[in-house]
Q: What sequence folds into this?
C-alpha cells in the first residue's frame, strides 16, 4: 500500500480518513481517490439519475393534482398540492381510454405468450449441434435480421389476409423476432450437453428434455425474452396506426398519441377539454394520467426482470 | 448417418422450429416477394397477379423525385448526428459507472438508467413535449422570467439536436449494458500489473480498459453504420406534423406517406426496396471493413 501523502494529519486520523475515502471495495493497488474527482463524479451521477426520474416524478404528480394546481404551476406540477385520483377515476370509468387499456392488455398477453412459446421451441429446435438442417433453418432466421421486406408489401399482405381491423394484425406480423430466438438459442447451447445426453440415454425425447430440463434451467433468459416481447407489444403504436382504422379497437399507445400528443378530443371518451362544473378533472391531469397508465405495466414488471439482464441478455448478445 | 435415421432422430427438433418458420415465411418472406410490385403499375384492385409490369419506371420516378432525395439527405444527417453525439455516450457512461466501486450504488443506478429504454416512443415524445414544448415546463419557467415563445418541439433549427437528445434519454442508459459486460471480463491482474509499471488512472483506461472494449465498439459501430438509413421511424412520424416535413422526412416516413397515405403503392415499394438493399450492402461492406482491421465483426456472432 502506498503511504499517505497527508503528512500534517496524525497517523491515527489519517488511517481512519483513508479507510473512509477508500471505502470497502477499492483494490489495494488503486490510488486514493481525489476528493474533487469524487465530488464531480457524484454530481454527474446524480444529474443523470435526476434526468431520468424528474420527468417521471412531475408527470405522476401532475396526474394526481387538480386543475387548479396545474393552473397555478402553469403546466406540470412539481410541488405537491391537493392530491386525488379523480383523473384516473375519470379515464377508467368506461370510454375510449378504458377500452384501449383492455385492448392493449389483451394484445400484450396473447402476443407475449405466443411469441415466447414459438421462440423457445424454435431456439431449442436449432440448439443441438449437428442436427438435421439446423444450419439452413438458422439461415432463415438470420436473413430477416439483415433484410426487411419493407412496410408496403407487409401492409399489402396483412390487408390481403383480411387482417385489417383485426387484433391479429397487431400480433402476427411481429410475432417472431430472430434476435430473441438467437438469445434463447445461445443460452440453451450453453447448457451442459452431458446433462441433456444423459436424459436422452434414459429415454427422454426432445419434448421431455426441453420441458423438464432445459426450461427450468433457462428461467432467466426466458424472463428477459418475454419482457422484450411484452414491452414490444405494449409499446407498439405504428402497427395499430397502419392496420386498425376503427378507433374503438385502438390500443392505449395510439390513444395516447392522438389525445395527449396531438391534442385531438376523442369522441365518447370522457376525456374532452370541456370543463365540467362539479370540479371534474380535465386537461393536463387527465392527459398525464393516460401517460402514467401507459407506463405503469412496464414499471410493474421491470423490477422483477431487470436483475436477469446481465445473466440473460449479455450472454446471449456477446456469445450468441 | 443415413438421412432417415437423422430424420427420425431430429424430427422433433424440426417440428419445434416449424411454427416460427411458418410465421417468418408468411410475414417476412412473402412480403419480400411482394416487392415485385415495385416493377408493376400496381393497383390494389387488380392485385399483383394482374397488374402490368412496367420495368424500372417506378425506380426512375424514385430517383428523380426531389422529395426522395430530401429524405435521403435528412436520413443521413440524422444518422451522422447520432453517430457523433449518441454513440459515444453509452461508452462514457459505462466507464463512469464501472468506476463506481460500491455494487449497491452501481446496480441501483443501472436499474434507473435502463428504464427509459422500455418506454414507447409515444411516451418519450410526450414527455419531451411536456417539458420542452410550447406549453411545457421549460417554457413556463421562461415565461415567468419574462421570455416568451420557447418551443423546441416545433423549431426546425434545433430539431436534430432535439431528437438526438430524445435518443440519448431513451437508449443511452440501456446502451451501457453491453459495455459493462465487456468490462466485467477484464482480468483485474492487468490493472495491478499496469500500476506496478507506473500507469496512472488515465493510462490504465487507455491501455487496459479501452482495448477490452474495442471489439464491442467496432461491432456496434458496424451495426450502426449498416443501419444508417434507418433512423427512428416511430420517433419521427410522431413529430412530423409539429416540426414540418422539411427537416423530419426520412426514408421510412417517405415510404409510409407515399404508399399508405397517398396510395402510390408501387412507387413507395420501390423506394422501400432501394432502402432495404442499400442497407444490406452497407452492413456487408461495414463487416468487410471490420475484417480488414482484424476485428471479429458481425458474422461470427451469428454463425457460431
A:
Amino acid at each position: 500500500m502506498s503511504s499517505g501523502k497527508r503528512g500534517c494529519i496524525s497517523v491515527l486520523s489519517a488511517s481512519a480518513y483513508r479507510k473512509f475515502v477508500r471505502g470497502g471495495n477499492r483494490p489495494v493497488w488503486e490510488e486514493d481517490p481525489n476528493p474533487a474527482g469524487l465530488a464531480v463524479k457524484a454530481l454527474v451521477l446524480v444529474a443523470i439519475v435526476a434526468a431520468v426520474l424528474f420527468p417521471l416524478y412531475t408527470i405522476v404528480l401532475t396526474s394526481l393534482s387538480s386543475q387548479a394546481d396545474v393552473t397555478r404551476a402553469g403546466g406540470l406540477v412539481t410541488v405537491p398540492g391537493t392530491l386525488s385520483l379523480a383523473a384516473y377515476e375519470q379515464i377508467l370509468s368506461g370510454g375510449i381510454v378504458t377500452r384501449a387499456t383492455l385492448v392493449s392488455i389483451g394484445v400484450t398477453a396473447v402476443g407475449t405468450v405466443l411469441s415466447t412459446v414459438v421462440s423457445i421451441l424454435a431456439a431449442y429446435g436449432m440448439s443441438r449441434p449437428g442436427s438435421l438442417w439446423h444450419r439452413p433453418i438458422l439461415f432463415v432466421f438470420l436473413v430477416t435480421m439483415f433484410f426487411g421486406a419493407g412496410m408496403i408489401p407487409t401492409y399489402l399482405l396483412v390487408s390481403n389476409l383480411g387482417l385489417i381491423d383485426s387484433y391479429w394484425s397487431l400480433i402476427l406480423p411481429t410475432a417472431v423476432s430472430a434476435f430473441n430466438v438467437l438469445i434463447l438459442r445461445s443460452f440453451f447451447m450453453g447448457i451442459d450437453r452431458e446433462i441433456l445426453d444423459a436424459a436422452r440415454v434414459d429415454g427422454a425425447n426432445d419434448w421431455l428434455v426441453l420441458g423438464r430440463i432445459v426450461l427450468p434451467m433457462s428461467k432467466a433468459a426466458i424472463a428477459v425474452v418475454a419482457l422484450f416481447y411484452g414491452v414490444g407489444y405494449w409499446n407498439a403504436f405504428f402497427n395499430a396506426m397502419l392496420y386498425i382504422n376503427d378507433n374503438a379497437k385502438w390500443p392505449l399507445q395510439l390513444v395516447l398519441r392522438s389525445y395527449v400528443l396531438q391534442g385531438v378530443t376523442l369522441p365518447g371518451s370522457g376525456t374532452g377539454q370541456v370543463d365540467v362544473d362539479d370540479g371534474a378533472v380535465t386537461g393536463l391531469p387527465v392527459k398525464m394520467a393516460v401517460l402514467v397508465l401507459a407506463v405503469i405495466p412496464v414499471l410493474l414488471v421491470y423490477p422483477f426482470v431487470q436483475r436477469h439482464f446481465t445473466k440473460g441478455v449479455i450472454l446471449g448478445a456477446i456469445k450468441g | 448417418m443415413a438421412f432417415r435415421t437423422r430424420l427420425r432422430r431430429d424430427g422433433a427438433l424440426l417440428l419445434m422450429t416449424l411454427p416460427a418458420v411458418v410465421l417468418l415465411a408468411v410475414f417476412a418472406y412473402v412480403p419480400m416477394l411482394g416487392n415485385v410490385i415495385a416493377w408493376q403499375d400496381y393497383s390494389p384492385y387488380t392485385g399483383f397477379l394482374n397488374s402490368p409490369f412496367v420495368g424500372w419506371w417506378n425506380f426512375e420516378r424514385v430517383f428523380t423525385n426531389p422529395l426522395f432525395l430530401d429524405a435521403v439527405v435528412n436520413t443521413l444527417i440524422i444518422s451522422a448526428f447520432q453517430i457523433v453525439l449518441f454513440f459515444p455516450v453509452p461508452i462514457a457512461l459505462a466507464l463512469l459507472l464501472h468506476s463506481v466501486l460500491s455494487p449497491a450504488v452501481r446496480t441501483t443506478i443501472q436499474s434507473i438508467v435502463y428504464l427509459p429504454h422500455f418506454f414507447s416512443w409515444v411516451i418519450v415524445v410526450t414527455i419531451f413535449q411536456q417539458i420542452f414544448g410550447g406549453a411545457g415546463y421549460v417554457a413556463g419557467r421562461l415565461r415567468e422570467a419574462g421570455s416568451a415563445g420557447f418551443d423546441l418541439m416545433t423549431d426546425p433549427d434545433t430539431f436534430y439536436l432535439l431528437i438526438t437528445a430524445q435518443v440519448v434519454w431513451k437508449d443511452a442508459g440501456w446502451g451501457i449494458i453491453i459495455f459493462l459486460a465487456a468490462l466485467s471480463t477484464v482480468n483485474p491482474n492487468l490493472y495491478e500489473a499496469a500500476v506496478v509499471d507506473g500507469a496512472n488512472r488515465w493510462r490504465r483506461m487507455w491501455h487496459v480498459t479501452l482495448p477490452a472494449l474495442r471489439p464491442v465498439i467496432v461491432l456496434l459501430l458496424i451495426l450502426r453504420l449498416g443501419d444508417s438509413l434507418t433512423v427512428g421511424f416511430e420517433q419521427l412520424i410522431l413529430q412530423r406534423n409539429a416540426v414540418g416535413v422539411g427537416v423530419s422526412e426520412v426514408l421510412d416516413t417517405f415510404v409510409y406517406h407515399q404508399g399508405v397515405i397517398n396510395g402510390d403503392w408501387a412507387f413507395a415499394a420501390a423506394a422501400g426496396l432501394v432502402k432495404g438493399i442499400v442497407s444490406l450492402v452497407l452492413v456487408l461492406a461495414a463487416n468487410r471493413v471490420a475484417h480488414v482491421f482484424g476485428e471479429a465483426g458481425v458474422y461470427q456472432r451469428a454463425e457460431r
About this structure: The radius of gyration of chain B is 24 Å. DSSP finds 16 helices and no strands in chain B.
